[in-house]
């Protein structure tokens, strides 16, 4: 069994087309078909069901697909380890991040990491928690910077890199802006901007829980996917919102931030560095170590 055969198997499993797989592998269809047959003979089981017009994975094929991907991943890590021994760490790091990571965390981590690892290139992609976790599961990202607390798939682990508390964001000309500390009771009759439940379930649930614990049914008037969008809507006078304290690092005109009482429940949240335990690269490990030391 060769790495080449496993690559061909995975490519065919992803395309379910000998023509498409052959094009992606830059070979013709007959040698691909022969190679897959040889692999099936070595394994002792058929990996694909073939008809005149369709190709589908068998139960055996489905059962070994994930392992084949991991073997290819580990094989790709070998030359990186060898290069590290001679020249130092280099390569590409794919990082997905939620919008609020731009306020301080990304800058705090990336600047020292780039200085200590000049041979590393970065591919940065802003997304929601849901999109980042999905990309980590598919190994399309090495690291995800996510908003916590959040339910995690079993293969995803994370470490908290930064803790925040909720602040009240309100227009600077709002009468409540005259107070230094606001209670949730102060917001009972105010228009509230919340986070979209299916895109940011963690923040949505925390805000909902805060009002529920206070015995208040909020007057929800707007929803948004990103913290930045929520703050922007506040600046337009569309309502009041509960936002992570990191937003104070980049103030926006027309928006004031006020604290909640310290005894307010469920006010602590954070940013975590997430990774897929099955595809944790050496480079990702170095990035995590740097991040937790910052």
Give an overview of the whole structure:
The chain has 294 residues and is α/β, with parallel strands linked by helices. The chain folds into three domains: 3-85, Winged helix-like DNA-binding domain superfamily/Winged helix DNA-binding domain (Arc Repressor Mutant, subunit A, Orthogonal Bundle); 90-161 and 270-293, Periplasmic binding protein-like II (D-Maltodextrin-Binding Protein, domain 2), CATH 3.40.190.10; 164-268, D-Maltodextrin-Binding Protein, domain 2 (3-Layer(aba) Sandwich), CATH 3.40.190.10. It has nine helices and eleven strands. Helix 1 packs across helix 2 (18-25), helix 1 (3-15) crosses helix 3 (29-43) and helix 1 (3-15) crosses helix 4. The model has no long low-confidence stretch (mean pLDDT 88).
Short description:
By secondary structure, the protein is of the alpha/beta class.
